[in-house]
Amino acid sequence: MKLQKSTVFALYAVLELASAPDKQLSTNEIADRYGISTHHLAKVMRRLVRGGLVQSARGAGGGYRFCGNANRTTLLDIITLFEELEPELDLEEASDVPPTNIGGALQDVRDEINDLTQATLRSITITTLIKNAERRRQNDQLIIDPAI
Amino acid sequence: MAVPAESPDNIVIRPAEMADIDTVIRLDEMDTGLAKPDYWTDVFNRYVANNQPDRFVLTAKAEGRVIGFIVGEIRAWEFGSPPCGWVFAINVEPEYREKGIGSMLLDDISNRFKAAGINTLRTMHSRRDTLNLAFFRSQGLTAGSYIQLEKQLD
Questions:
Q1: ipTM, 2 decimals?
Q2: CA distance A39 to B41
Q3: Residue A13 near residue A30, CB atoms below 8 Å
Q4: Is A123 near chain B, with CB under 8 Å?
Q5: Contact B67, B101 (CB under 8 A)
Q6: By CA distance, what is A127's nearest residue in B?
Q7: Which domains does chain B have, with CATH numbers?
Q8: Nearest Cα to B69, choosing from B61, B78, B59, B79?
């Protein structure tokens, strides 16, 4: 599964904003943090606003703020705002080719993988991913400074 | 009915007693839609009455009544796996969810596993069971090193 750029940017933005829900961040700040295009991210942010996950704050120091439910919103929810999930095993769908048992068995494998992928993305909430990121940060700190 | 704001201080986690069985059956039936009195009687007889050191049924109590439970045990060498702690049931009354009680139950049973020298926690759920999968993910569990396979027997 190769996610589109917009989807990846949306994941960065939502997770960044949700990890500090009291703060607001501008598109520039988020784009700089991840080294991504501000122009492209601005389009993504507008879509996230329409999707009800972030809201824009006007005025001096305006930016965006997370406004969704981090305990209930999953990675799959964010991804499907932007795209249909592509199958992991990309079998060309040739509708003019008569169905065969081999083709059907290969599609069963594809469906099995897709089902697992969706179940995984559906079970990881924004809160869980932020917690996992914090665990990584703490582990990295331990490696850098074993005295901690 | 309004639920009082529970703080962890008001929740008591302790090993189950035989008298808790009816509540456990009710909580399980609420989630699964299927009452399994025979199954739970067997579990309580084997896990609670016998007081086995490697089997745990723990309950969470609030205001003197059971509002959640967790069941697990240490299993060794099945499927070639070194000893690990399996959690095979957890439940909290719906109105008490998202208050950290599931985490308290899991932490408590994890500590019991660790005290027995176990350093791997394992569980298994239907891939459609988003509630439990999301809960265990939130507790830091990820896909493990085993893949479960099955087939329908005609």
A1: 0.82
A2: 63
A3: yes
A4: yes
A5: yes
A6: B138
A7: 13-138 (3.40.630.30)
A8: B59
Taking every pair of Cα atoms in chain B, the longest distance, rounded to a whole number of angstroms, is 52
Distances (CA, A) of B121 to A86, A119, B142: 32, 20, 10
- The rounded distance, in Å, linking the Cα atoms of B121 and B113 is 8
What is the nearest CA distance from B152 to chain A, expressed in angstroms?
15
Q: What DSSP element (H or E) covers B31?
A: helix B21-32
User: Is residue B2 over pLDDT 50?
Assistant: no
User: Which has more pLDDT, A144 or A82?
Assistant: A82
A119 vs B98, B127, B140: nearest CB: B127
List the single range of A85-89, A119-123, B70-74 with lowest mean pLDDT. A85-89
Q: Do B98 and A119 touch (CB under 8 A)?
A: no
Write down the architecture of domain A5-144 according to CATH: Orthogonal Bundle (1.10)
Calculate how close chain B gets to A26, using CA atoms only, in Å.
29
pLDDT in tens, A111-131: 899 999 999 999 999 999 999
What six digits make up the tokens of B89? 């049931």
